[in-house]
Amino acid sequence: QVQLVESGGGLVQPGGTLTLSCAVSGVTLDYYAVGWFRQVPGKEREGVGCISSSDAGAYYADSLKGRFTISRDSAKNTVYLRLNSLKPEDTAVYYCAAGEWVSSCYYLNEYDYWGQGTQVTVSS
């Protein structure tokens, strides 16, 4: 059984930092890419970025590049999303997803498994 469990969300002030975790079980990150997405109520789920299975290269949405960093710990089978310089508009539920054959980070249909999401709220 494949499971993805996000954690690390919470309330943070503008300009602050959070690190989200995505613990993966049932598949290995050596063969599955992991993507991060976020969603605000009433809007479509938006791709944040992903980390590849082969070389652990990370890719980011242009609008977020430079503030967010994706990394992985293969020994823990866990992927991280570090959110820097947070803005109120970053408030959303953040999801991780795993896919065996991901050709584009940002397409939801590329992913086979999803986590339940973790809430990030940026507010003073």
Care to describe what's here?
This protein is an all-beta fold and 124 residues long. It contains no helices and eleven strands. It has strands at 3-7, 10-12, 18-25, 33-39, 46-51, 58-60, 68-73, 78-83, 92-99, 113-114, 118-122. The strands form two sheets. Strands 2, 4, 5, 6, 9, 10 and 11 form a seven-stranded mixed beta sheet that branches. A four-stranded antiparallel beta sheet has the order 1-3-8-7, with no helix packed on it. The radius of gyration is 13 Å and the shape is globular. The N and C termini lie far apart (40 Å). The model has no long low-confidence stretch (mean pLDDT 94).
The percentage of residues in β strands lies in over 45%
Can you tell me the residue ranges where pLDDT is under 50 for at least 5 consecutive residues?
A: none
Give the assembly state of these chains.
Answer: single chain
- Series of secondary-structure elements, N-terminal to C-terminal: EEEEEEEEEEE
The largest pleated sheet is described as:
7 strands, mixed
Please report the distance between the alpha carbons of the first and last residues. 40 Å
Mean pLDDT: 94
Count the strands? 11
The share of residues in helices is under 10%
